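Q: Could you write out the predicted structure for this multi-component system? I'm mainly interested in how the pieces pack against one another.
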Amino acid sequence: MIQRTVTIVPEDGLHARPASRFVETANEYDSEVTVAPVDGDPVNAASMLAVTGLNAPSGEDVVITADGPDEEAALEALEAVLTTPE
Amino acid sequence: MTFRVSGVAVTPLSGLGTVRWYRTGGIPGAESVEADDPETELERFEEARGSAREELQRERERTAERVGREEAAVFDAHLQFLDDPQITDSIEEAIEEGDAAEVGVDRAFGDAIDQFEGMDGMMAERADDMRDIRDRLRRLLAGDERIDLSAVPEGTVILAERLTPSDTAQLDPARVAGFATVTGGRTSHAAIFARSLGIPAVVGVGEELLEIEEQTTVAIDAEKDAVIVDPDEGTRERVSATRDVEIRTEPVETTDGTEIEVAANVGTSAELQGATRQGADGIGLYRTEFLFLDREQPPDEDEQLEVYTDALDAFPDGRIVVRTLDIGGDKPIPYLDADEEENPFLGDRGIRRSLDADADLFESQLRALLRAATEGAGRLSVMFPLVTTVEELDGALDTVDQVATTLEKEGIPYAVPEIGVMIETPAAVTMAEELAERVDFFSIGTNDLAQYVMAASRESDAVADLHDPLHPAVLRSIRRSVEAAHDTDAWIGMCGEMAGDPDLTELLVGLGLDELSMSAVTIPTVKAEVTATESETARELADRVLSASTKAEVHEYLEGE
């Protein structure tokens, strides 16, 4: 299991298109992936409902955790989504 | 027994046909559903979800094909939520605890609706998407496969509680003789669609509509704003006659050979098809606001490029006049900080914002337009809204130059399109000569021109009589603009409601307008009027009408021809 803290770059935060891309990416990997606010409970990164429910704005830190055979690749890809401006 | 129910006719067309109800309701309360064993309930849920997926994919494809890719994107979101693990987990949990699939669906989507309603702005609108998906699943769980709107027999009148954008996108004007809905108004999505596709439609009828039975013969009566059940012979003849206007796809000219371009006003790529169908020569007003509304961020350059190119490809032999973003305090857009203003129609809007607060958006829109000008098949023209000063026009023209220079440097293919200004204000009319020297064309927006010349709001019923382009002050403003344009060899069109009134076609031709642009549905009638007009007679009519000092005299001269 690996974990990384990432600052959200897209202007919209984890909403709309960035959230949609984030969820799509999480679904592409076999590893279990969660995302959490720095001081909050993790939610399923493969759920659009859960991810948008975090209501995480641009500039905020989130903790991404991946556990599984392709955890390294999953984290890389998800970090790329969160650090790419729209 | 013949009877009628009243509503609002949203197109000038009437129609006659046989009723098919498009029912989306009839879902029993979840509590009344008795749960089978969990295994069976789980199977029922999976089956409903599978059918929902198929329906959504079918609707997405059909919408992308008929309407446009942007409009189809909503189905992608629905598909994503349909398979959302948090939602499906919650439904499966409920079922395992002994609940019926219906209860699980209601609870899971109920939570999702609560979540989105608790959020700000655009996310709150997601709650409606959740309701749509829930209702779809509930309908499928009840075993109700919806009638296929695109495959109804010819001569069908669709009756429904309401029609969503995806429903209307399935309607085939060749088969559907009309539709009527319980809810909705003149500006509802279904209404806009009906106008662009040329389908007779009466909306906002209310609960009375529900009394009309399946398979009865009804008339959708635009003249009476009503749905008439079992109409008598006279009504049948009257409503059937109104659809028989020949559609002319080729350009038309007056009896003495003056060609008048008859074009369509559109706001979304969805309406392009309706415009082609009604025989439009091109697009005389492409409003770009809809591209920017109902979303959380502006469309980027590439997205716009695609939309504008699609429009140009829809009219390979025609001209597409795109109006740059015309936004003000009355149409707030969440990502623009347009302050609410005391009087938005006299405030920061149109070209004023494009040169200042929205300069970045203006630039990216122009980049997309200049690129589309070489990529799309048709001819592109670009016009600026609400120009009141020469400085504003010069500023906008400078921006076009800068954008062209940058594209050149970047090695990106582009072309500089025809440039024009909208004539909507007394200031633009007064400065028409100076403006005309700087552009290729004018387009008169008569709704705003009447509002600003007469100082009478479009929204106020109390001054509706003043807000009328047939006041001599407005007519003289039009004449002055035409003369200024023609003195510098610029062409001049009209894209307000007035242009689509067939009773005024002769007057407008007589005034010297080169192009008339209107709602697609009135194009066949106006084209027919043009072919029956003789230029010299029209000019004499215009001279007479322009000599009037009162609106009453204007009417007198118009009717006394």
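A: Regarding packing and overall arrangement: DSSP finds three helices and four strands in chain A.
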